[in-house]
C-alpha cells in the first residue's frame, strides 16, 4: 500500500507524505464545508490525480498526520498492492428515507470478496440508526461497516459529500474494500463520564426527543448550558446524552444532537431515542477523552501490516469541548499506533462502527472511531 | 515547551510561511485557548451546581416518600403509637393516638406521658392496663425501646380495651336479665328428682297456698296428670323417659278437690358425671287465659252465625291473602268455584279458578283481570266491581283493605238492579236520540222554509212595484208582505231555538263599535215606537270602551228581543236601556245591560215559567200581542252562551226590569283594521256606498252580472230585480254552468246560490278563485242557508259577501252598488 498525503491551509498546498504512487485507486479528501461549497474542489483534486475514485467529505475539522485543522483540505491518495475498491453513491432527501436509501446504496456493491464498507453520509439529512439498518439488510455479517456523517463545523447548517464530482448535500457514498490481503480492524471509544440523575425518555418520535421525565428536554439542556445555550444546537454536544434500553445496564450508546426546534420544544438527534429508554447526561474531562482516544487506538492496533492507514472519525462534540487541545487526542492515537501508520479523518456528526461490546454496528456519538486498513506483505 | 504551545507555534509558522511565526495569529490562538479553558471551567461549575441541586431534590423526594410510607403504615395500624424522648415527652405519634387522646400532635408534643395515662409501665416490653386521663377510656399499653447509638427514643403503643370491658359487663347484665325474664314468664319454679317426684317448689305457696304446696311435694308427675287426656299423658311420659326437655305441657292440677289449669316447661338436669338427676322448670296458672279463650270462642261463634245469615257473601283474607273467614252465601254466589273456597285457601287460587272455569263474562283480558285482582296495589282501585257471570247473573264485589293488611270482600247478586238500570239507560238514550233528531230536523227545515218564503216576499215586492196606480191592491200586497215578514220572524225564532237545543249554535267574536250596537237597536225599534205614545231612551255609562270584541249579532239579538218586548207590553210611560261597564282586568270588561219599562208587568206565578220555551206569561197574551213565546227563552240561552245570566224583576201593573251582564274583550285601536271585515282584505280598497236610485245610470258602462240560481221562481225574482235596476245579467243553473259562462263572457259580479245540483256554490267559488284572472271578481252569496256559520263558510270559500234569503232588496241593492263600484274601479 502506497500513500500520498497533501494539505492545503491558507490556500497553500503542502505535501505531508509521498510514497511515490504510480496510480492512485482511491483519493480521500476531507475539507471544510465552506471550501466544499466553492464548487471547484473536485476539479482541483482531479487535476492532481487524473485517475482513481475521488471521495470528498465536509467536516467539523480535518485530521491529517497527527494534527487537526480547520478551514483546510486534507487529501490522502491510496494505491493498493493487491486489493480493490468499488464505490457507490445514492441520494437522500430526508431522514425517513435513511433505511431505504442505505439499502439501495449497499445493494450496488458486489458482495463477493467484500471485506469493508466505509460509509460517508450527509450529516444532517439522515437518521444514522436507520442508515446502518439499511446497509445491514444487504451486507453479510462478515463485512465490516464503518464510517461517519459529514460535518459542517459547529454550524449544523449544510454538509457535503461527493464521489467523482463537485460536493453536494443529500448524498450517501460507500467505498467497498475487496482483497484477501486486506488487514482490517476497528475500535470506537468515548471516554465521557455520566453525571447527574438518570432520566427516562417519556416522549420521543424516532430521533426527535421531546421529554425526559415529563419535562421538556430542551429546557433541561438550556439550564445546564447556561450562557452557552445561545450556541445551540452545537453547544448541546458539551453534554452528550447516553441512552440504554430498559433493564440493560451494560450496553449503552451516546447520542449527538443535530438540531433543535424551539417551537415544539424538541431536539433532533443523529439516532433514535426510543421511549422508555433510560437517559443520562455526560460530561467530558480532557484527560479522559484523550485517554479514550488512545484506548481506541490500542484496541484497533494491528501488528505486521506495514504501512497502514488509520481512518479517524471523531465526534465534533469532543472538538467543541476541547477546543485547541483536541489535537491531543490525535497525537495520542498517533503515539499508540506508531509512526508507520498514516492518519487521516475528520470530525463528524456521527460515527459508524461496531459496538465494542455487542459487535453490532451502531451509530456512535462523541467517540473516537478508528478504522485501520493495511495490506499483508505478499510472500510471493 | 508545553504541547499546546508547540502546536500553536507550528500553526503560526505555517500561517506565516516563513521561519518567523505569525505573531498576531499566535497571540490569537493563545488567547482563544485561555477563553476555551475559562468556558470549560464555567460550564463545569454550572453543571456541578445544577447536578447537585437535582440530586438533592431527588434525595428529598425519596426521603419524603419514605416518610409518607412510614406515616401511612403508622396511621393504618390498629394501635395508637407515641414516640417519646428520654424525658418521656411525646415527640411524635400516629393518627389513632391523636384521635384517642383527643389532641392534635401539635398539642401532644412536649407533654409528659404521665399527664396522658393514669399509669405507665416502668420497663419496656411489659403490658399493663390503664385509663386515658382525658376520656377515662381503658387502654392496654406497652413500651418499647427504639434507641440506637446515635439517639435515644422510646415507643409507647396503646389500644382501646373498652370493648373488652363492656363485654364483661354485658355478660353480667344478661345473667340478671335472664333471671328477670324467667320470673316474669312463670308463676313458680319447680324441681323433680330422678323418679320425677316433686322435690322443690319456689314461689308456689304465694300463689297456690302453703297447704297445697305440702300436698304437692313428693308426688310424681304421673300422679298429678291423672286427669290429663291420654295422648298428652303418654307423650309426656315418653319425653320424661327419654330425658327430653318439654314445653307448654298443659293439664289440670287437682289439689284439695279444686282443679287449676296449668302450663309447665321443663328441662332435664344431669350431674357432672352426666347422670340424669331430675328435671327443673317453671309452671304457670292459666285459669284466666282459659276463661278468656272460652269467651273468645263464644263471641267468635256469634259472629260466625251473624255472618252466616247475611244476604251478602262475606270473605276475609289475612295479610298473606289467605282465606280466614267466609260465609255460606259466598260459596253459593260463586258456586262454580265452591270447592276452592275453604279456610286457608289463597285469594290468587280462587281468582285463578274463576278464570280457568270461565266463571265471569269479562270485558277485559282475563290475564289482565287476574293480575289486577291478585296485586293488592291494584285490587282496591276499583272499590265496587260488577261482573256478569256465564250463567247470566250480575255479581257485585266490594273488596276493601282492612287495617291489619288483609282484605274484606262483600259479594252480592245485583242482577235485578243491573237489568233495571240497563232498561232505564236504553229508554234515556232513546229519548235523547229522538230529541236530537227533532232538533236536527228543525235546523234542516230552515233551508226548505226560506226558499219559498223568498219567493213570496220577492214576488210581493215586485208586484208592489208594478201596482203604483192601484192603491187597494197595493194595500193587500203590503199586508202580505207584513205577514210574511212576521212569519219569517217566527221561523227565525223557532230555528234559533232548535239550534241552541241541538247544541249547534256557535258564537262568532269580532271587533265592533259600541255605538253601532246602539244605532242598530234604535233603527230596529223605530217602527214599533212610531205607533206608540211612549218615551224610549238610553242611559250609557261614560267608561264604556268605544271598541269591543264579541258576538255583536247575538248581543243585538238579545237586546232587540228584550227591548221590543218592553215596547210591546208598555202602553204609557217609558222604556229605558241602561248600560254599565265594570273592568274585569286589563283586557276584559263586564257590560251590564238593564232594560226597564213601565209596562203591564208580570205576576209572580207567570215569572216562574217565563223563560221556559213555548210559554208566554198568559195564553191570552199570545192572542193579544202575538209572538212565539220563544224570544225570552232564546235570549236567556244566548246570555248564558255569552257567559252571563239573565234575570228579571217585575210587578204587575208597574213594569218589568230585565238585566244581564256579559264579559267582553277590549280592543286596541291598532288591531281593529285587521279584524273588522276579513273579506275586505281581498279587495284592494273599501268601495264607497252608492245611494243613487239606480245603481248605475250610465248606459254605456252597464255592468254584467252572473246570477247562479237553481230555483226557477227565485231566478225569476232576482232577474226581475236586476232588470228593474237596469243591470245586464246572465243566468246559470248551477256552479258548473257558471264556470262555463265565466269562460265565455266577461262578468263584473257573481250572485251565487249555495245549495245547487251538479256543483254547489262553495265548490264553484273555490274553482273560480283558482283562476288568477278571477281573483278580484266580486262574488256575493245569495242563499237560504242563513246561519252565521253558513256566512263564514261562504267567506272561507272565497266569496266577498253574503245575503240571506228571503232577500231584502234594499240590502241587495246596497251590496251590488258597493261591490260593483269596487269591481269597476279595479278591473281584473
Automatic annotation (TrEMBL), chain A:
Domain FIST: 23-216
SMART domains: FIST, FIST_C
Pfam families, per database record: FIST, FIST_C
Domain FIST C-domain intervals: 217-355
Top-level taxonomic group: Bacteria
Protein known as: Histidine kinase
Organism annotation: Oceanospirillum multiglobuliferum
UniProtKB/TrEMBL annotation, chain B:
Alphabetical GO biological process terms: regulation of DNA-templated transcription
ATP-binding in keyword set: yes
SMART domains (UniProt xref): HATPase_c, HisKA, PAS, REC
Catalytic reactions on record: ATP + protein L-histidine = ADP + protein N-phospho-L-histidine
Response regulatory domain ranges (all copies): 704-820
Residues bearing the modification 4-aspartylphosphate: 753
Domain PAC, residue spans: 247-298
Gene3D superfamilies: 1.10.287.130, 3.40.50.2300, Histidine kinase-like ATPase, C-terminal domain, PAS domain
Residue ranges constituting the PAS domain according to the UniProt record: 66-112
Taxonomy, superkingdom: Bacteria
Domain Histidine kinase stretches: 444-666
Record localization: Membrane
GO cellular component annotations of the record: membrane
EC number: 2.7.13.3
UniProt xrefs under Pfam families: HATPase_c, HisKA, PAS, PAS_7, PAS_9, Response_reg
The protein's enzyme class: transferase
InterPro entries in UniProt: CheY-like_superfamily, HATPase_C_sf, HATPase_dom, His_kinase_dom, HisK_dim/P_dom, HisK_dim/P_sf, PAS, PAS-assoc_C
GO molecular function, one term: phosphorelay sensor kinase activity
Primary location recorded for the protein, binned into one broad class: membrane
Keywords of this entry: ATP-binding, Kinase, Membrane, Nucleotide-binding, Phosphoprotein, Transferase, Transmembrane, Transmembrane helix, Two-component regulatory system
Identification of the protein by name: histidine kinase
Species annotation: Oceanospirillum multiglobuliferum
